[in-house]
Protein 1
Amino acid sequence: MDVISEFAEAMRSAGFEPPAEIVPDGKIHRFANGKRGERPAWYLMHGDERPAGIFGDWRTGYSQTWRASAAPSSPSERRQHAAHIAQRQREAEQQRAAENAAKAELARELYQGAHVLGRHEYVTRKGIGAACTAGIKVEFGNLLLDGAGNRLVSLSGLCLLIPAYREGRIVGLQAIDTAGTKRFIASVAGAAFSIGRWHGAGRLLLAEGWATAASLHQATGWPVLCAFSCGNLRPVAERARRLLPYGEITLCADDDHRTPGNPGIKAATEAARVVGGLIAVPEFGPDRPEDATDFNDLHQLRGLDAVRAGLERRVRVRAAATA
């Protein structure tokens, strides 16, 4: 197996779908990772005498290093190779950090210039009330451009812009069009959008999607953090635990019953375990629709009383052991 094929296989083993062409030029390249209309994944590969690389997903902050299997034989060569990989990783991280900073600044500019939310088909369809839309703005998809006039996301019509905050600052946006198609502008890794005031609260809910978070808040009145993806639940939960050392934190899982490994429940359980929190899972009963997975689906099918009942069944997950 040549080194490019080996690098591609490492991506597949980590759950990525490699691009059709991998360019080993030592520069960051973005690719779709199976998602149409956006390029959330990236890689950097050096194909010199010491083939090595790194790849990841800028939305979640995940990254993984790689080196060719033809490892150096002597201890000295192994040390040199390890140093080579570490240097390449530092270069990739520096380049990625610079790109993220530029995208975050663009996201802030887009949000600042966007319009106050009025009526929106997605909001109406999801049953989201006005109390949950504070801080949400809208813009037309054909106006979501970078400084050079390039299209940032493949969306059309009027798009919701949901800001992702980290340390009190917008670092990215999630854009949602009227059909419910979602795209990210800049990385939201470790960032969240809050519904309700949660600093100093005794109880906090965490959810993946904004509509799910809205349903949970409408059902309980409790503050809710939207983490945007299951992979972002743990870093958001860890940040929340630092700020709420004695508060009750409940991870409200998406039940991805049609996806192998059920990543929604798996990620929520892991996040709850790390922070010593609780987990709640929506229960739909025997006549569950195939596409029903989250608490917003439960809200629309059974009403807010069913959402409240689901939270009453939340259970504690034992905290992870610390070294």
Protein 2
Amino acid sequence: MPTMPLPNVTTADQLLVLRDPPWRHELWRGELRRMTPAGHDHGDLGARLLARLFVFLEKRRLGRVYNADTGFLLARHPDTVLAPDVSFVRAERVPTSGCPGYFTGAPDLAVEVMSPTDTRRRVAVKAQLFLEHGSSEVWVVDPERMTVTVFGRTAEPLLLRRGDTLTGHGPLKGFRLALDKLFDG
């Protein structure tokens, strides 16, 4: 089956109205990138993390957690709109009224679940983009290796493996998730 060419989209406004099912898209410095639909493991791990963060945040009213459909406008000219698999925004940054477009700015936490088509290099670049534009942390979940790499603004990336516990910092202080529970269900 021939590959369809990418639409000519270079701005966040164009991306917002783009219809190209079943694909999801991101805009990297004015370059449109098509993403394949998530596979089973990818979707399952993303949902597990979203659910755990939601329960933790809902009780404490610390902010909002968003799914992979949420785009974050990180930069203009050229435009960059990225959509992490799971994200968290502190309560004081959540818009008080409707927000019909993309969230302006980076989430406080971005979570990326690696898919079979991702490269570690590409995901690390994406993590760095989130950090450069204001995210405090980025968690990269690797279903194949059963690891989570925690990227922060100041420290070297921290690699967590089965047997380790993923812990939140800053407004997520007190959040804990054993990687065995994440990967085993």
Protein 3
Amino acid sequence: MADTEAIRQQVQSRAPFSTWLGVVFLFLLFGAIVLAVIGPAPRSDNYEKSRAEKRVEKLKALTDANAKQLTTYGWIDKKKGSVHLPIDRAMELTVTELSAKKPGPAYPIATPTPAAAGGAASPAPAAAPKASGTPAPAASPQSSAAPAPASPSPSASATPAGSPSPARGKTPSQP
């Protein structure tokens, strides 16, 4: 029993002084490392002010370069013959070019297929007319459906009834 009592006292005894000294030394070492890393970093307002001034200078240079590009003539690629124009002149040329064009539909106009006699829809779609102008023959003589009339010419209705007129400046594809 004496051995178990001695072992119990050794296990429950306080840590020796050297352990405490080692822990304090590690904390001091950690603090010194932190100061060595953070110490050289700038901690004044001058650093942030100089960075802000550099950003303002870069933004001004970029704005000046963009303004020069938008207001002057110059070559983009002389071999290909591509140039840059002032934005006002480019808009004038575009408006002149677009006003010279005849407006047209932005998408093909689909005509609805006529309903068969008796109110029932025809089982097969109508065949498109041939280039010669003669209608396609019926599929079989027993077919009770009437032949589909020829589709109207595209010039009969250049724009859909619901589309805005070109005079208002919108095309059918614009909302």
Protein 4
Amino acid sequence: MYHYFINRSWMVSTSAQSVYRISAWLSLGLLVMLIAMPFLPKLPSALSELFRFVLFACVLGAAITFVAMEYFLFGFDTSPEWKKGLWFLMLCLIPVGPAIYSLVVYSRSPTLERKRSERPEGMAEEFRGSK
């Protein structure tokens, strides 16, 4: 029997969709910040603290996006297996891969468009545990 700590309804809720969208954009912001970091001169103390705070928010967004999109890929995505395999490889390219998956696949998934009563309660058929 499988025990999951993430409730299935959390993944498809409108709040989760907003959080994952924001996290995906923060994840892309992390890439920009990492590229810009060597080119920044020595920042004053106040700007340095602000930069570190924004950097922390971007790292947190990248982590949220990575974990959530991996969970969505294996539990909800109804794509053919070969597409799942390609997306899995893309998800390994942190911070860009999970953000692109979130903005392209997750946000357009038919699972999110279904009425709340039609959404699946358990894992995808191949991942359901026997009780």
